[in-house]
User: Fold this.
Amino acid sequence: MALEGSISQYEIDDIHRISRPLYAIVEKIIGSERIVELRRQKFDELDFNHNIDPSYSFVRLIRGSRGEGYEFESSDIDIMIFNKGVIVLNEATSESIWRTFEYHTIFRTEYSSPGFVLVKFVRSFDVSKLQMFYSFVRRNTNYYIGSNSYREIWRQLVNSDKFGPHGPCLTTSTYCVDYDFSLCLYSPFWPEQAMSFVSRSIHTGWPRQQVLKDICNEGCLLVPISSKVYTNRESTDLEWRISFSLAEKRIMKSLNHCQFLTYGLLKLVYKEIFLQKIEMRDFVSSYTIKNVFFWEISNDPYGWTIENFLMKFMRVCYRLIIYLRNEYCPNFFVTERDMLLGRICSLRRQKEAVMLLEHFCQKGVYLLLYSPSIGPNLRPVLNHSTALQDLQAEQQGGFELEIDKCHLRYVLMFQSAPFRNINAAVRGLQNVVVKAINQPERNVTTKLKINDILQQIATFCFSNYVSNRMLYRDQRIAMNILKKAQTFYCLNHILIIKHLYKSQQYEDTIRLITNLGIDLSGVMYEWDMRHDILLTERQSGSSYESIIKRRMLSYVRLTNEDTIEELKLECSERRVSVVDPGISVPPLVFLNFLLLLSYNELQDRTNRNRSLRKMYSLTINLTGNHIHRTHGAISWEILGICQQLCGQRNKAFLSYINALLDENNDFKEATNLRLKSL
Assistant:
């Protein structure tokens, strides 16, 4: 079946007439070009903020749909992690030029099957860093890394109760978001198996020459999973799959907005229509759809405009039919690898899938009426000629609001890796300032990063002293640093109070809490992203900075390095979390906790009991304005600690039980230890 003949049934005028409203509908669902760029920028910023610490051994990269700029409800967050001290050479590269201080371990790839390699150990300059992470398998006179055993060792190193296997990844869920962690090896070389992609791209002109150069210079990743089809039994545990996620993200960024929305429409149709049919689930994966989409652009990189939006979508669908009918779909980067191999196990099921896909495609645009997200928007446009103008007018105001939501959502997702010492923190601060000079548009996230680093520097100043004289000097330095950070969305007063308590200045702690309590008495939990609240705040003239600053008052971040002694158990358990190594505490709960502890140290029982009653009234009203339900577990935990401290053992027991029963409790081992201490 020729592609041109497949679409000849549609008149050009009808395609152009339907393409424009369809484009507007898909753009409304997926986002405008500015929104997509903002999503990508925020995830790039998260990667940058996590990886700037020179002393941090592992690099984290956010990939997958969210990293490419899509944001579907069912989308998870794919995170690639690799050790930057380990390098994987290809077959033809000399290892002598890579014997530098940057790499402590060298491996080399050997061809195994299309899209897969064996990873052979070459040399290590620091064996102590090697034994903990890698599992070696001896074969003849060489040592190889076993992919299955490597993945299992990583699962044991992290909290295995909260991570489950998912292909080459470890998957976990935090705050109703699924995270897939792929623990890989990095190779800075473009693999020999994918050289056909380079020559083909030069011939067709897509991707562009600069994009192609960046792709080849960036290299690839190796993920620990073996082939289910090609591998013989001896190599089952040795094969690693070549991941082209770095190249795919480069390509997705180079697409124009029409191409980007076409692939978004394909993903919507795949999830909402194709996956509902059991015939399609067995044969077509989302990654197969992406490869077919890349092949279509490579075959015809021109004419991807709004007027041809529907035509290009249908061409990709017909190309998929051809691949299914021929039982062969080449991988876009390694053409020898068949994406359908191992999926087609029944000729009858294959014919049913092809017939079903042809039936869908014959419906043309009416196929999209089956989609729950597209159908309700498309039906009025097909029935009424004025519906397109109404849709465009609605989008004009909706995009601005969506941009505001996108800004706030990703800014408030901001987390960074803790620095190991004050020198690393200062180097990290220098890197942030240099980036801010070169990229001034990153204003909000740059301020957040500066705030975070200044807090960590202040923490080092408070803790790194050897005499009373140095304590006094370093405290003054730390206080000045926190005051300087006041413009960077920081709960500086609460941080100062925390450090005063840790340095046993209880009277000053009580005085500052008493003064600050008046200002925080009206603080509400402002993490609400509803349209009406954001629209009201933006229309009233509130800036991004003022909105973010109010929402930053919603919690206090505590990590194992900067927490108080009374919460060491909870923070030490959260330290092993790869997603979020810390705990969040409502500010009023934390201040009342410090107030009660200070009164207890000063043996002021009257005020201590008054603080306990206030803590109790705050905690039992979890649906109130001051404590959000996601902070219920830590609030009950702190209340139990306070009650145990005041001798109310029975009430403390009930509070710990409530903390255990809370679905958001990520420190259950610590809670169980406190229960045993009763």
In short: Residues 1-10, 521-532 have pLDDT under 50 and may be disordered.
